[in-house]
Specification:
The complex is a heterodimer of chains A (about 400) and B (about 270).
Chain A (H helix, E strand, L loop, with lengths): L8 E2 L2 E2 L5 H18 L2 H15 L5 E3 L1 H7 L6 E7 L10 H15 L3 E6 L3 H13 L3 E6 H6 L1 H9 L3 E5 L6 H14 L4 E4 L9 H9 L1 H14 L5 E5 L4 H10 L6 E9 L10 H4 L1 E5 L2 E5 L24 H9 L2 E7 H15 L5 H8 L1 H12 L3 E6 L8 H7 L4
Parallel strand pairs in A: 4-14, 5-6, 5-8, 6-7, 9-10, 9-14, 10-13
Antiparallel strand pairs in A: 1-2, 3-4, 11-12
Helix pairs in contact in A: 1-4, 2-4, 4-5, 4-9, 5-7, 9-11, 10-11, 14-15
Chain B lengths: L1 H12 L4 E7 L5 H14 L3 E5 L10 H12 L4 H12 L6 E5 L1 H7 L1 H10 L4 E4 L8 H9 L3 E2 L2 E2 L4 H10 L7 E4 L12 H15 L3 E4 L5 H8 L4 E4 L1 H9 L3 H22 L1
Parallel strand pairs in B: 1-2, 1-9, 2-3, 3-4, 4-5, 6-7, 7-8, 8-9
The chains are: A alpha/beta (about 400), B alpha/beta (about 270).
Chain lengths: ~400, ~270
Amino acid sequence: MQDAQRPGYFGQYGGRFVSETLLFALDELARKVDEIVKRDAFQTEWRGLLTSYVGRPTPLTETARLARAIDPAGKHLARLFLKREDLCHTGAHKINNAIGQALLAKKMGKRRIIAETGAGQHGVATATACAMFDLPCEVYMGSEDVRRQAPNVGRMKLLGAKVIPVESGSRTLKDAMNEALRDWVTNVDTTYYCIGSAAGPHPYPELVAMLQSVIGEEARAQSLTQTGSLPDGAVACVGGGSNAIGLFRGFSSDASVALYGVEAAGHGIASGQHAATLTAGRVGVLHGSKSYVLCDEGGQIQEAHSISAGLDYPGVGPEHAHLKDSGRARYLSATDEEALAAARMVARTEGILPALETAHAFARVGAIARELAEARGRPVTLVVCSSGRGDKDLETYLSRLVDS
Amino acid sequence: MKRLAAAFERRAQASQKVLVAYLCMGDPSEEESVALALGCVAAGADILELGCPFSDPTADGPAIARASQRSIEKGGGLASTLRAARAIRAKTEVPIVLFGYYNPLFVRGEGTAVTDAAAAGVDAILVVDLPLEEGAALRARAGELGVAVVPLVAPTSAEARAGQIRAVKDRSGFVYYVSVAGVTGAAAAPLRDASRQAGLLRAATGLPVVVGFGVDSPEKARQAASEADGVVVGTAIVRQIEDGTTPTDRMTRVTNLIRSLRSGLDGAS
């Protein structure tokens, strides 16, 4: 949670490292978050849309076959539950945040919405919310991501959004965010910038975490209802970290629930081609907040690599940096190959084809169960955030998995 | 900091305006950047802003973003920019402003970065993405070494900032007024309004105020400077360097630009 003494900071992380022009737009946004988002009227309207439009609450599904596939003897993993964000309208958790921010933009009187997107899930979610609220929407997307997430590009266009391919830098999420920030600073009077991850300058990390914490709230209540107790651990993939922070917030006051984030190790940490910012990065400043980043010793941001466009980002939300340093959460990583294998296993044991991002979380469930079971002296129950469905990744899956 | 004050004082006494020249260091090479910077001074620039290239320059338009990328590909960055500053300082007493983004300074360590900058002959530091609220540590360290930290003010922030800047006046050197909500190189910056705002800001803070963003011709320089103490020219210089084909061609283009801007400004005074 935010530092009570220093709004916008999570421990030493967060803040507002932006140009002077944007600082005052962020001031306005922070005020509106207090005046609008935190009020009952907004909460009622937003939660109503989550029910009637998004399809919440999403189920907490027990996946016994997957549990046995991961741990055949049942020595470490007693029960495994998936928080089914893949069943949200548009196919991922991103819609929780997009609906909330689009509603806020409407109430702030903004006439145009911009967004950045990596995998395209946040872009699709924002385009969806904008179609519903009748707001023009422009989505910045790295041209490399446009190529590898073609179905989502098509979806955004069908929803009436304009997709702007970004050709600079690594042509991925980082560069899309650069361009979105340049657009925002130029059109700040009329435009609302809908950030998709729990990253960026204050108040975005807190705003996005607030809107995604519905994941953890539901998962906690469902765990109690369905099992009579809290899980031993909660697991989620981490790129910028919005589904993870949403899940973690539900359990942050429950000391007995261990929190695990899984980053993208790409070709392996040692290869240098990865997106494991918390695992292998250093403290720095990117896109308006202080957190861990992947950069060289001269402070130049390095290109990340992941097979998953949604995790292919050299930064991470500041709250995760704080959770790492404080030891409240632990961060592991999974390689491209491990994620692909995990996706195949989840598909074949449970009939659920996860997004490539989500597959990284599944890839570490076995290791996490072992570690936690050894610490607690008994098999454990885990909840994994099934953050999105894999339809958007079909091209990658078809080329890498079908014959295997 | 004394060199900065002297530069403003000299032009003010002659009823002239200060011309600040920005160069993206390392584009096309560290050595040529040094030569071009010295060329700018000889052609009539009063203050140099040495741009430290950054991989993700979100406050910059395409021209400076491209230049930054070219520079980084050839090894440009903070270390190279500081070497260039040292080389320039060895030849001239022109005030030098180290201009860039926060991460390279933060990763080097603010204290080390400021110490190294002071040793290289840098008079002031301007960090685009370090607003007053986040910059206390850097200002404190820079203040101990006599290095100014230049505050930026934007059209969205002018009213709120004057008082805050007055409070750090002794450590500021001057104020950089951003003419327009946008990125560097903006085509349609409202320069007359900006100049008026700059004039108000000078009255409110007691510091010299220069106007930057969108100043790319003698006429625009004159407009922007009319009620301000001076102007910053960046993208226009970077474009001349990008368009030039040889070192001689680039030097000719850049010095011709500076001379034309200088005469534009002097025509106004």
